[in-house]
Design goal:
Blueprint lengths: L2 H20 L11 E5 L8 H14 L4 E5 L10 E3 L5 H4 L1 H10 L3 E3 L3 H11 L5 E5 L11 E6 L25 E4 L12 E5 L2 E3 L5 E3 L7 E6 L4 H10 L3 E7 L19 E4 H7 L7 E3 L1 E5 L1 H12 L8
Parallel strand pairs: 1-5, 1-6, 2-4, 2-5, 6-7, 11-12, 11-13, 13-14
Antiparallel strand pairs: 3-4, 8-15, 9-10
Helix pairs in contact: 2-4, 4-7
């Protein structure tokens, strides 16, 4: 029943892309290379861990790297810089996490080109910009596209709303990276995913995850696939007395722990940036996401091949 609507969605998307190609809708370029990390399927596919991994890799190479994002789910609508003390509700939970985890300058705006220009004006020494999401945001010119897939692959292969695809696949793309445990198809690079050795409290104190093994805990996740986080905790030996799965980007405003059991509350690193305001005793368990070396080698080669690139 939804198939006719998916045809309409596909036609409107194709028309929009054609308008950009014809110049009737404007694509703006900034003065430094832009790497877009996005996906072609609806819902989270693990883009934020990929963004952080790419930023850390570029920083390790000595490249001054900035990040732009729309700041999905934020209550503001302006262009602003994300600071360490920024309220995630004002800048978005993912930009807040990226800023705290990498230390890179991060700007959010509805139009990513505005965020990129503001970032370069505030940090003119920036050499590379990474866009968190925005594969379909054609107003910002990009030099490298990284398309991220999780275990769902392309689903049933149909466009929204009959399937999960925002646009057709396959489509031209520089790099494909699988963020899940089981790549749905052979093309692209893979990564290893594992929980960190320590859980982190709001004051920075660390608790070895092994010290929680075998003890009952309450696990909370407000991400696209909460059960994946719960399974990783169980695999590390944690006894989940209760699991709380909330909608992705849940704001936790006024949220209260539904259980009166005096048990440790563990959550994802992404949720902690907002949850700590309501539950400062919560323990965040970071995810270590490491793409295979060949992925970074391919990324470096593409950066070096850009004519006039400061990243070469």
């Amino acid at each position: 029943m939804l198939w006719p609507l998916s045809l309409l969605y596909a036609a409107l998307f194709a028309l929009r892309r054609w308008l950009y190609r014809q110049g009737w809708l404007q694509t703006d370029r900034v003065s430094v290379p832009v790497i877009v990390v996005g996906n072609v399927i609806a819902g989270g596919a693990g883009k934020t861990p990929v963004v952080m991994a790419v930023v850390r890799h570029l920083q390790a190479r000595g490249l001054r790297t900035g990040v732009v994002s729309r700041g999905y789910g934020r209550r503001t609508d302006d262009c602003r810089e994300v600071e360490n003390e920024s309220d995630p509700q004002d800048v978005g939970d993912e930009p807040a996490l990226i800023r705290r985890a990498t230390g890179a300058p991060v700007f959010v705006a509805r139009r990513r080109v505005e965020a990129a220009r503001a970032l370069l004006a505030r940090h003119p020494a920036t050499q590379v910009i990474v866009s968190d999401d925005g594969l379909q945001h054609l107003a910002l010119a990009r030099d490298i596209e990284i398309c991220v897939f999780d275990d769902r692959g392309v689903g049933n292969g149909w466009r929204l709303p009959a399937g999960p695809l925002r646009e057709r696949w396959p489509r031209p793309c520089d790099l494909v990276l699988h963020s899940g445990e089981h790549p749905a198809f052979e093309d692209g690079y893979t990564a290893t995913r594992a929980l960190a050795q320590d859980a982190v409290a709001s004051d920075g104190k660390r608790t070895p995850l092994d010290a929680l093994a075998g003890k009952p805990v309450i696990a909370l996740a407000a991400i696209a696939r909460p059960e994946a986080f719960f399974e990783m905790l169980r695999a590390r030996g944690l006894a989940l007395a209760e699991t709380i799965a909330l909608p992705d980007h849940f704001d936790f405003e006024g949220w209260q722990r539904p259980s009166d059991r005096d048990l440790p509350l563990v959550c994802t690193e992404k949720d902690a940036v907002k949850l700590w305001r309501q539950a400062p005793d919560a323990l965040a368990v970071p995810l270590h996401f490491v793409p295979e070396p060949q992925f970074f080698a391919a990324l470096d080669a593409k950066l070096s091949s850009l004519d006039g690139s400061q990243a070469a």
